[in-house]
Input
Amino acid sequence: MSGNACILLIAERDDAEAGLVAESLGAHGIEVCWIDTADFPGHLDLIATPGAKYPGWLRSPDGEINLAQVRSVYRRSPSMFGMDDGMSAPERRFALMEAVQGMGGALASLRCRWMNHPARVADASYKPLQLCVADQCGLRVPRTLVTNVGQAAREFAAELGGSVIYKPMSPGVLAEQRRIRVVNATLITSECIDDAAVGRTAHTFQQWIDKEYDARVTAVGGNCFGVAIYAATETARIDWRSDYDALSYVVVDVPAEVQDGINDYLARCGLLFAALDFAVETDGAWWFLEANANGLWAWLQERTGLPISDAIAALLVEEDTR
Amino acid sequence: MFPDSDPLAPLSSRFPLSPAAGHIPISDAQPSAARPFGLQFAVDVQPRTCGKHEKKETRTTKTKETRTTSDGKEQGGEPDTEEYVEISYE
Output
């Protein structure tokens, strides 16, 4: 890497994944510039010159970042801009949209290697699109219905033997009754499908895969780090996110044809990183469930010792020949 | 049309950001009669245990002075407060 180049990390200050990447880069003497979008505008200055020869600067209490010297960007779930609490709601909305345009636009226009570019992350966040792309890449995809028509959902469930998975497409987080609640994937029967309630928004129903274990594949460039996730409870077996204490982790080889499909998936989506979830049957069939271009992996590295942060660091430093 | 009013691809989604510092505002809202089907499966969030990367549900109360006149002077009275939960997912 050339003398003045730096790797830009865009993440919350306490982000575990970004921290591990910074450690891996630091171990090789690579300069890291870390910004948290929550610091903008109070503690992070933007001096951008779009269209000029040099893109401009960022300035924080930690120092200045010459955007022309950014070699690559590691973006990991940055947080919302930190607007002045004294603003009214309309003022805040205006300020946030200007910040998205100004800071977001200035960063997104950097012509360098991104892991991952925010626009690609946004595109790849649509679950129906993920299933379509996975199918095009030769990955095995469960039958899925997205609908607001209860009768269609019941017929779909009947075709699949009466039971299907209901799963949210968004993070499924709900703040109500002074509690934070989340909707996990749930195995349901056709009898419980309520036409009026299904009619109130889009709902996703999916074929239940009677799996031996779940697999999380952390894909970094051409490297696929596979971890089998075994669940000790029935609830966790349906959705492992529902009970982390019931899980155990074992490193697993990802079949070559699945790796090929994953690499094709990343290429089609314009991603260098994704965390992909599969259901694996006893006969060895791998079923694609979803992919998160922004997924967490630090806890898996800690539990299994897989060198995910080193692989990410290596890719950030590598010459971009595109 | 305002760029962020496109329901299929709002401009803000082109540079996706999490809620500030992973904070989710606490709400007193009650389940309504028009509840979508999927929400009947909502359960309380379980903290993730993952060694040094563990994230627990943390509640914080932040005081936010919003009772001001149009010229920015305080109107007096009890300040509004906002309560947040910090948590992370997947």
